[in-house]
Structure formats: structure tokens, C-alpha cells
Amino acid sequence: MSIKNELAKILGKDYVSDKKEDLAGYAHDYSLLPPGMPDTVVWPGNTQEVGKVVTWCNEKNIPVVPVSSKVHFHGSTIPKQGGVVVDLKRMNNILEIDLDNRLARVEAGVTWDQFVSELEKKGMRTIMPLLPPGDRSVVTDTLEREVPTNVVYDYGEPMQSIEVVWPNGEAFRCGSASVNGFPESKSRGANPSGPGLDFYRFFQLAQGTMGIVTWASLKIESIPRMDKILFAPVDDLPYAMDFLYRILPRRIGQECLLLNNIDLAAIVAENMPDDFDKLCATLPPWTLVLVISGLLRRPEEKIAYEENFLSQVLSQEFQKMALTDNLPGFPGLGRKLLPMLRKPWPSNVPYWKNRVKGGCQNLFFITKPNKAPVFMDIMEMVAARYSYPVSEIGSYIQPIEHNRACQVEFSFFYYPDDAGEKAFVSDIYRDAAAAMMNEGAFFTRPYGDLAPVIYDRAAGYTMALKRVKKVFDPNNIMNPGNLCF
């Protein structure tokens, strides 16, 4: 039996390949995990074709690895056991932009570049994580629950209904998409997540182990009529976190984030490495970035209200915080950074995390904001054990939902062609993760080497997850080798 020939009967010979040069692009990504070669790659053009491919693979017990992006960082799309890569790049249609209900429905192959550009034409924007690659899939990042830079609670869960192909090949729609007559049903907009069944949680963070999501409905918002970006140099991180506890629960600000000098330099440097080195040496240890915005109604009053509140808090309670419209010593930074926060990273420029050395291993987790400084201290101790300069580690703190929680991220930069450095970074990454875990770090997205460690510590959850997997995918064909499967 030739897998290629059988699948060509379904899709046509132009959309199936087992050529080494085609397969090689799916064998590795930007992670430190070892490569794995698929046997065949297919490029379906619609949900029906995805269903037929998955049905055939399920009958033959052939692994299926769904892919919907050109850029991958965590090894979750590397075929661990060979099989068929289902690349959804041809499914790149924006199916609808619903201005009244502030929803957009996009296929899995739609990229950030494409999505942001089309929304701008309608005076709308999407809620994004920090500078995603322009040619990365919007649906991929949403399924991965990449944390947005916007801290407003309403945007914390951008995904609504989805369409998924189960491992048996059947298509299923969740939420309001499951009602009769969708997308023209009378219930449209009444409750975007219902009244149908909300199965989408099974597919978030599942790394393609539960099924293949072919499209998703996502929240969108009006482009603000007015914006003001504010900066504060920070050398006392606990003090800054107390300030955020004071202002963010009062719904002050839209985007809000903290970047250390390494990460901020990697983002704004014009010329690498000269500008990067100069910025690293001159930027403050941390920079707080806060954007206050006025949307469609009374934008001037909204900006004035937030500025007045901030002025009172700064003068009466946090005199050591110098929150201004420009970072001292870096004129024009606000005019440069604000547009960047609303757009993906340019596809024709090396990704900002890879600008430093060419490769980057990220360690990220969720914690309470007041514990973020504790994890910074732990990182310093781990780095000291390895004689690794902490001054070379990128750090990023992203408040979540008005500072209810935050994501802490560390970036270890390395040269991809240096095997010794890659092994060294891998070691410090694992030890740092263990130290953070012992302090209570919550790893919501365990990839690669971290997955077995984390799932071993959550035996009850792991057993429940395996029971769910057995129901949906009894033959274990969907991306085997990931999560705890």
C-alpha cells in the first residue's frame, strides 16, 4: 500500500507528496527537540477533504499530525511516530467579519498578517499576543491560548465557536455554530459561545491530539480613536507589581506589559547586533508599558479620566513611579512601539526572539503577580549555578485580566549551529523549570521534556485526560507522542 497513492485518490496528486524535500520542512522547528520525519504530507482545501483524509488514516491506524502554521516553536508539530502531516495552509479564507457582533470567522490557515490587514480595512482589530510572527496561524495561537497583551477581561478568551474534525473523520461544530441554520440562525449573536455544546476547551492546548480545528470564530474590536502610550523605568519590580495591583483592577489601560532590557532591546533595535548591545547597556532593568485608549464613544473623556486617575495614584501612593509618555533617554520610543503592539512581527524580518543569536528557548508559566519577583530571584540562582550571565536572559511579564494573574516568560538565546550551546541551554531550561515548578509555577502548556514531568505530578488530571482521549481517539492516531499520549 502506498500512502501517497491512496491519499491522492482523495485529494488529487498535486496535493499529496512524499518527496524528501517536501517532508523535510515538517521534520523540525525552532525548538530544541529532535527532528522527526513524516511519511507523507497532504494539503487539503476544505473540511470535507480533511475528514476524508482523517477517516482513511484512522482505518489504517496511521498517525495524523495537523499543521496550520509556517512557524513553530515548541516541537508539538514534529511527527514523533511518522505518519501523515495534514497541512491546512490552503484553508486560508476569512469566512466572515461580523461588525455588529464583533466576531470574525477564519480558517486555520489564516495568518496574523492576513487577518490584521483585513480587519484594518473594516476599522477593526484583533486581540493579539506580543508580536506574533506575521506568517503564523491565528487559529494556532488562539488554540494555544497565547496570552494577549491587552489586559481587559472581555478579551481574555478571544475564541468562541469552532469547527473540528474528530479522529473518526466526522465534522463537528461547537457553541452557536452547532445550531440549525448556522451561520444564518436567529440565535446568532445572542450568545456567541452557545446555545450549542461548548467542546472547544478539549481542543485548546491539546496540540492536535484531540482533532483538527478547521475554523474558529474570534472576538474582534474597534480600532481605538485615541491612544496614549506610557512608560515607566523600573528597577524595583515588587514596587511595580504593587502599582499594577492598584491600577489594573480599576480597568485602567488596554495593553500593559513589563519587558526587561534584553527583550525590549531585541524588539526595538534597528540594526543587530550594534543597536542591540547599546540598548541592553542603556535601557533600565525593566520597562513598564501601559496603553490607555478611547474607543468609539467619548474617547477624549475616557483618556482624560484614566490620566486623572493615574496622576492621583502616582502623586499620592506611588511617588517613585515615573510614568510618562516617553521613556527617559529614548526619544520617539512611544511612536515606534505603539504601532508594533497592534501588528504582527514582519514576516520578512527574523523573528525578534531569534534576532539575538538565531535560536531561542522559552520558559513560560502562569503565577500570581506578587510572586513574579520571586521567580526572577529563582532564575538568578539557577543561572548562577551554571555560570550563565543573567544579564543575557530575556524576561517578560504579562498581566492577565486586570492583573488577576500573570504570565512570566524567560528567553534563553543560543546559536542553532552550536551543539554544545544548545545542550547547555537545554540543561539550564530543564533545571529552571523544575525550580519554578517547585515554587508553584503553573505550566498550562507543557511541551517536550516538561510534559512528562508535569503530567506525573498531576496523576488524577492525567488519568481523566487519557479517558477523554480514549473516547475521542480510541486508535490514538492524532499526533501521538505529545502531551501524555
SSE arrangement:
Layout: H1 3-11, E1 16-17, H2 20-23, E2 40-42, H3 47-60, E3 64-67, E4 84-87, E5 94-98, E6 103-107, H4 112-121, E7 124-126, H5 138-143, E8 159-165, E9 171-173, E10 212-222, E11 226-234, H6 237-247, E12 256-260, H7 261-268, H8 274-282, E13 286-294, H9 299-316, H10 333-341, E14 359-367, H11 372-385, E15 394-400, E16 405-414, H12 419-438, H13 450-456, H14 459-472
Parallel strand pairs: 2-4, 3-4
Antiparallel strand pairs: 1-2, 5-6, 6-10, 7-10, 8-9, 8-10, 11-13, 12-13, 12-15, 14-16, 15-16
N-end to C-end Cα span: 27 Å
Q: What portion of residues is helical? A: 25-40%
What value does the Rg take, in angstroms?
23 Å
- What proportion of the residues form beta strands (DSSP E)? 15-25%
